[in-house]
Specification:
The protein is of the alpha+beta class. The chain is 42% helix and 15% strand. The chain has six helices and six strands; from the N terminus they run E-E-E-E-E-E-H-H-H-H-H-H. Strand 4 and strand 5 form a beta hairpin. Helix 1 runs antiparallel to helix 2 and helix 2 runs parallel beside helix 6. The radius of gyration is 21 Å and the shape is flat.
Length: 212
């Protein structure tokens, strides 16, 4: 679990194997796939962060199988963001996380809508399409490399946002592409909304010093 973040509180977790809570007792669970039996252990981990202590349940494949743990509880992971971020933006982000593994295409469409919602809310930019809105960011002192990156990924999920386009043109969205979109949304939430709020709080504290 080292290097991961808690799906409940969003904080970083650093848990070695000897700090995991006890695995479920008894023989490994199994399921049949054709003529093969697949064995796995269920491992329960508790978040070490004092403000959380939430439980995470994972399936760990038996030795010799693909060594990838799969989280079964909670059902998906997202960062909890404060309420000063508009509710519709937080909802699109959370839903993009929720369907990422089930449907990367749907996740990408939700991330794209979340991106557009942030540009319109945070920067007050409204144009006929997302491409124009991203390009307009250059006139708001937004880092050029960020604008270029957003232009590079904005087409992912585009069909879902514009269903009148011939669906035969729809390009598959790989799970890692949906993950990249979600990570980009998290970056923008941190650099725009969270940073703005932190600046506001700091300046208010500084202003209080002048009143003493």
């Amino acid at each position: 679990m080292a290097g991961k973040r808690c799906p409940h509180c969003g904080n970083d977790m650093s848990i070695s194997d000897n700090r995991r809570s006890e695995a479920i007792k008894g023989p490994p669970s199994s399921f049949k796939n054709g003529r093969y039996d697949h064995l796995f252990d269920l491992v329960v981990t508790r978040c070490p962060n004092e403000s959380c202590h939430g439980y995470i349940i994972e399936t760990i494949p038996e030795s010799g199988m693909l060594n990838v743990a799969k989280m079964v509880y909670p059902a998906y992971t997202f960062r909890p963001y404060p309420e000063y971020i508009p509710a519709h933006i937080r909802q699109d982000y959370q839903e993009a996380c929720a369907v990422k593994d089930l449907s990367p295409k749907a996740s990408a469409t939700l991330s794209r809508r979340c991106l557009q919602g942030m540009i319109r809310d945070f920067w007050g930019i409204r144009k006929p399409n997302l491409h124009s809105e991203i390009t307009e960011l250059r006139n708001h002192s937004v880092d050029g490399s960020l604008v270029d990156a957003l232009l590079g990924i904005k087409s992912i999920g585009n069909i879902g946002a514009h269903p009148e386009v011939d669906t035969a043109q729809m390009v598959d969205v790989a799970p890692e592409e949906a993950e990249t979109l979600i990570a980009t949304i998290e970056l923008l939430l941190a650099e725009w909304y969270v940073a703005r709020e932190a600046r506001k709080v700091l300046l208010e504290k500084a202003a209080e010093l002048n009143r003493r």
